[in-house]
């Protein structure tokens, strides 16, 4: 497929997803920047539902960066033990809290590269934090759902999330990045599922080359 054809399809996809989800929001429960950032760090290779089950107790005991920075990592690990890789994540979120305090005076930086200096924050997490908290889209969130639907739609043949993001950013005008990131995640989670995708009720089935073939 020529680049222009891919770009045309990508824009049609973005417009249809935007119509389906005009204002997508993360399903990670949070009330402030601290809670969202920690929840995002915990969500790597873990469902949002599972993260939402452990964060109430975590935030009750450690309500802010200062409290978490002085926490015992074993105690933190015990509170989040239901999430995958809980021991490593406990170490990283405590280290992240200390970094926020030491480098950024207790405030999350509104900058992709600065955010990625925090332990536990890679590019996908930084994209989520920036888009959800401040509406800043410096890239496109690529999780397992976005990877899957982008491949099924023929927008990329890449497997690596970084390369998938590069492909999507080259196809989509920046004005679509924020909505596409959130709406594609939800679409992949509830409609274009890994197994038994709901092609019959999918708003993209008219332009998707994989529709009714999986």
UniProtKB/TrEMBL annotation:
Reactions that this protein is recorded to catalyse: 2'-deoxyribonucleotide-(2'-deoxyribose 5'-phosphate)-2'-deoxyribonucleotide-DNA = a 3'-end 2'-deoxyribonucleotide-(2,3-dehydro-2,3-deoxyribose 5'-phosphate)-DNA + a 5'-end 5'-phospho-2'-deoxyribonucleoside-DNA + H(+)
BP term (GO), one: base-excision repair, AP site formation
Reported cofactor(s): [4Fe-4S] cluster
Cofactor remark: Binds 1 [4Fe-4S] cluster.
InterPro entries registered for this protein in UniProt: DNA_glycosylase (IPR011257), Endonuclease-III-like_CS2 (IPR004036), Endonuclease3_FeS-loop_motif (IPR003651), Endouclease-III_FeS-bd_BS (IPR004035), HhH-GPD_domain (IPR003265), HhH_base_excis_C (IPR023170), Nth (IPR005759)
Catalytic activity, EC: 4.2.99.18
GO terms for MF: 4 iron, 4 sulfur cluster binding; class I DNA-(apurinic or apyrimidinic site) endonuclease activity; DNA binding; DNA N-glycosylase activity; metal ion binding
Gene3D superfamilies in alphabetical order: Helix-hairpin-Helix base-excision DNA repair enzymes (C-terminal), Hypothetical protein, domain 2
Domain of life according to the entry: Bacteria
Sorted UniProt keywords: 4Fe-4S, DNA damage, DNA repair, DNA-binding, Endonuclease, Glycosidase, Hydrolase, Iron, Iron-sulfur, Lyase, Metal-binding, Nuclease
Residues noted as binding [4Fe-4S] cluster in the record, renumbered to the chain: 192, 199, 202, 208
UniProt keyword annotation of Iron-sulfur present: yes
Domain spans labelled HhH-GPD: 42-190
Pfam family, one: EndIII_4Fe-2S
Family classification: Belongs to the Nth/MutY family.
Function (record text): DNA repair enzyme that has both DNA N-glycosylase activity and AP-lyase activity. The DNA N-glycosylase activity releases various damaged pyrimidines from DNA by cleaving the N-glycosidic bond, leaving an AP (apurinic/apyrimidinic) site. The AP-lyase activity cleaves the phosphodiester bond 3' to the AP site by a beta-elimination, leaving a 3'-terminal unsaturated sugar and a product with a terminal 5'-phosphate.
Listed name of the protein: Endonuclease III
Organism: candidate division WWE3 bacterium GW2011_GWF1_42_14
Lineage: Bacteria, Katanobacteria
Gene: nth
């Amino acid at each position: 497929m020529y680049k222009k054809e891919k770009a045309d399809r990508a824009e049609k996809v973005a417009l249809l997803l935007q119509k389906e989800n005009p204002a997508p929001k993360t399903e990670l429960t949070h009330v402030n920047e601290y809670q969202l950032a920690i929840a995002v760090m915990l969500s790597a290779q873990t469902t949002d539902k599972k993260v939402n089950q452990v964060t109430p107790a975590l935030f009750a005991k450690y309500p802010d960066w200062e409290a978490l920075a002085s926490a015992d990592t074993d105690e933190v690990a015990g509170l989040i033990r239901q999430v995958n890789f809980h021991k490593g994540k406990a170490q990283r979120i405590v280290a992240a809290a200390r970094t926020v305090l030491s480098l950024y005076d207790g405030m999350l930086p509104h900058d992709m590269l600065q955010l990625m200096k925090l332990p536990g924050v890679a590019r996908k997490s930084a994209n989520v934090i920036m888009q959800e908290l401040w509406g800043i889209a410096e890239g496109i969130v690529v999780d397992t759902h976005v990877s899957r639907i982008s491949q099924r739609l023929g927008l990329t043949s890449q497997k690596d999330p970084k390369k998938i993001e590069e492909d999507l950013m080259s196809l989509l005008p920046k004005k679509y990045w924020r909505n596409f990131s959130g709406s594609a995640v939800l679409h992949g989670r509830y409609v274009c599922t890994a197994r038994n995708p709901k092609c019959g009720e999918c708003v993209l089935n008219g332009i998707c080359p994989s529709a009714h073939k999986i």
